[in-house]
Every structure is written in structure tokens, then in C-alpha cells.
TrEMBL record:
GO terms for molecular function: methyltransferase activity. InterPro entries: CFA/CMAS (IPR050723), CMAS (IPR003333), DUF7884 (IPR057206), MeTfrase_dom (IPR020803), SAM-dependent_MTases_sf (IPR029063). It holds the Pfam family DUF7884. This is Cyclopropane-fatty-acyl-phospholipid synthase. Keywords: Lipid metabolism, Methyltransferase, S-adenosyl-L-methionine, Transferase. Residues 126-360 form the Polyketide synthase-like methyltransferase domain. The lineage of its organism: Bacteria, Pseudomonadati, Pseudomonadota, Betaproteobacteria, Burkholderiales.
Length: 401
């Protein structure tokens, strides 16, 4: 009876923060209402008594890990479950949940390669199921808001290539080329000569095959290479969804490397996730960085856009256009998560149950983070500092023609 009273007292207190009707079902069958009355949108099944310690003072890390290791199970839509987790973890402090943190990782070539392969070398078939035909694993661009995912991803690539004013026969370096979609489109539609680099062996093999199948081996080269080992100069440089792996302490050197790779009149674009917190002061109550570092993005680190622009300038790059795509990434992640749910049975045949749960809660959690402003994403077009102003366009119209 004493235990029952304690659990019900906690539920009554936690219920004030719960945004959706929910129910707690204990391992012995007892049920406790959380939050609003009525039919629950989410049911949390607590499979063992030890799991209650994670819920007594819940954090995003604790709740996510309990689900991943099967201490708790979830019945209901994952977006509602994530909203419930945010409500339970709330402590009246700023939220940066699901954000990679400022770690003490050395970001050596070996550790960075290991971290990239941990995340991306799951299975090409696994990614193909929920990424769609384009195999683009980054924020899409919804020009009108009504596009399907494949169309929006193609528009994102075109948006980038137009922003950097890519011209036929120009050389393009794509740092972190993924499965090759950007360099293939740059060669096919814009007539560029392209080099794409990745640290993922599976991406390298897949992208190389796609290049050969497209008949572009004479215009596109895919390399398994660290950005720090690239030499030469390029008319254009793109980096999409890669700089989150560089490390905050290394941003200046990273942008300096891009500057050194640019031709004198060259243009570069960095597309990456940022934190909305200018101090990067994670809250222990709602910070999901421990979960992200352990299960999703080892050694991942985010910066505020102000820090990114500062690091660019210190790296001898002048930013000439900055665009926030936060709404676009919320939409992208929502579509990914929905597709993931629709194809749950097929995905479970490709990965083990823990991997399935990690990605299920990760995609829905990130969608929530971008929707409510804990995370953001920017495209920043830049060039070597000190280049002549006369070479700049008078307006942004050229990006949309």
C-alpha cells in the first residue's frame, strides 16, 4: 500500500506537466492515470520495478534509454510519446533535448571515422526504406510546403547548387557526400566536375555504384577520405549535414581548410544543424545528449549560429548569405518518422530490436526538437574573406531562377 501511495503521488505531481492523456501500466498489472482524464493517447508499460527510478525524476536521456533497453514499452503514436517525455522531463528550464553535446572527444581522424561508420554503416537497405528514392539524409526544402519528400529533397539539392551559382565544367567538392545524390545531380543537371568524400565505407560503395550506373564515372569521383586530407582547389565546395561531426573546438580549422580548397573566386556553402542556445548550456533535466552520444551520434557537437559565423570569419571565410530552414527540417523529420512507422515490420527484418527502437525514438524526438525551437539548421553561403564585392550578385533572385 505504501508503494502504491508513492507511485500515485508521483503520478499526480507529474500529471500536471503531461501534455496528452496517458496511462502507466505497472509490471503487476496495476494502472495509473497520468495527466488528463479520458482515453489515453499513450500507454507506458513499466516492465520492472527498477524502471521506476528513471521515471521518478525523469530526463529525456533516462526515458529514451529505458525504452531502448526494453525496461518500458510504448503503445501509441511516437510523436505523442515524445511529447509526453518532454512534459515529464520539464523543469521550467530551457530545453535542448536530442542535441549532441560539447564532448571531450579528440576528433582524431580515426575517432571521427569510427563515429561516422557507427551511424551510417547500419544498412543501405535500412536507410532506403525511410529516406526514399533520393537517399538524401539531410533537411529537405519545401518550396511550397506541399511537396512529397523525394521532390523536396531534389529541390533542396537544386537550391544549394543555385545558391553557389554552379556553372558547367566547374569543379565541385562535396564534403560528406553521403550516398552521392548531390554530386550526381550537379554533374547531370549543371554539368559540373565533382568529387565527393565520405568516411562511411557503405556510403562510398553505394555512391560509387550509383555514379557508374548513371554513366558519370568521367565526371564524378567518390573517395573514402577525411576532409583534412584533401588537396587542390575547387571552384565550389559544399558540406551538407557534416560539420556537426567536426567538433566545436575544430570549427575554425575546418573552415580554414575549406578556404584553402577554394579557388580565388570560389564559393562554398555549409548546411548544418545548430543549437538555439547561444551558451550551449544543456539542462540536466531535458538534455538528450547522453542518449545521442551513446546510441546515435558518438562525439557529435552543435554550435549556435553566432559561433558558426564567428568560426567562419576566423577561418578566412566571409558569409554572404544565411538562411534558416528549421521549419523545413521539422517537416522532413516528420515524414521520415511517419515512413519509418509505416514500414516498421520491414525495418525490423533488417536490424535488431534495439537498433529499431533507437531510430524510432530518435527520428520522432528530433522532429519535436526542430518543431519547438530547441534545434535549428542553417545554410550559410560563403567565400574567401577579402574577395571583391563587385563579384557578388545584386539580389538573391538568381537563387530562384
Amino acid at each position: 500500500m505504501f508503494f502504491q501511495d508513492k507511485v500515485e503521488a508521483w503520478a499526480a505531481s507529474a500529471g500536471e506537466r503531461v501534455p496528452v492523456p496517458a496511462r502507466l501500466v505497472l509490471w503487476d498489472g496495476r494502472q495509473i492515470i497520468l495527466g488528463h482524464s479520458g482515453e489515453p493517447k499513450v500507454v507506458l508499460y513499466v516492465k520492472q520495478a527498477g524502471a521506476l527510478r528513471r521515471l521518478r525524476r525523469p530526463t529525456i536521456d533516462a526515458i529514451a534509454q529505458a525504452y531502448v533497453i526494453d525496461e518500458i514499452d510504448i503503445d501509441g503514436r511516437m510523436p505523442d510519446a515524445v511529447a509526453l517525455a518532454y512534459g515529464l522531463a520539464h523543469r521550467d528550464v530551457p530545453s535542448n533535448a536530442y542535441a549532441p553535446h560539447f564532448s571531450l572527444a579528440d576528433h582524431s581522424k580515426q575517432s571521427d571515422r569510427k563515429a561516422i561508420q557507427f551511424h551510417y554503416d547500419v544498412s543501405d537497405d535500412f536507410y532506403r526504406i525511410w529516406l526514399g528514392r533520393t537517399m538524401v539524409y539531410s533537411c529537405a526544402y519545401f518550396e511550397n510546403g506541399t511537396e512529397d519528400l523525394d521532390t523536396a529533397q531534389e529541390k533542396k539539392i537544386d537550391h544549394i547548387l543555385k545558391k553557389i551559382a554552379l556553372r558547367p565544367t566547374q569543379s565541385l567538392l562535396d564534403i560528406g557526400c553521403g550516398w552521392g545524390s548531390l554530386v550526381i545531380r550537379a554533374a547531370l543537371r549543371f554539368g559540373a566536375r565533382c568529387t565527393g568524400i565520405t568516411l562511411s565505407e557503405k556510403q562510398y560503395e553505394f555512391a560509387t555504384q550509383r555514379v557508374q550506373e548513371a554513366g558519370l564515372a568521367d565526371r564524378v569521383e567518390i573517395r573514402l577520405q577525411d576532409y583534412r586530407d584533401i588537396d587542390g582547389q575547387f571552384d565550389r565546395v559544399t558540406s551538407v549535414g557534416m560539420f556537426e561531426h567536426v567538433g566545436r573546438a575544430n570549427l575554425g580549422a575546418y573552415f580554414a581548410k575549406i578556404s584553402s580548397l577554394l579557388a580565388p573566386e570560389g564559393i562554398a556553402m555549409n548546411h548544418g544543424i545548430t543549437s538555439t542556445d547561444p551558451d550551449i548550456a544543456w539542462s540536466p533535466a531535458v538534455d538528450g545528449s547522453g542518449f545521442m552520444d551513446k546510441y546515435v551520434f558518438p562525439n557529435g557537437e552543435l554550435s549556435h549560429i553566432g559561433q558558426v559565423l564567428d568560426a567562419m570569419q576566423r577561418g578566412n571565410l566571409e558569409s554572404i548569405d544565411v538562411e534558416n530552414l528549421r521549419r523545413h527540417y521539422a517537416r522532413t523529420l516528420t515524414l521520415w518518422a511517419e515512413t519509418f512507422e509505416k514500414n516498421a515490420d520491414s525495418i525490423r527484418q533488417l536490424v535488431d530490436e534495439q537498433t529499431f527502437r533507437v531510430w524510432r525514438i530518435y527520428l520522432a524526438g528530433c522532429a519535436y526538437g526542430f518543431r519547438y525551437g530547441n534545434l535549428s539548421i542553417y545554410q550559410v553561403v560563403c567565400r574567401r574573406a577579402g574577395a571583391q564585392a563587385d563579384s557578388l550578385a545584386w539580389s538573391r533572385r538568381y537563387m530562384y531562377e
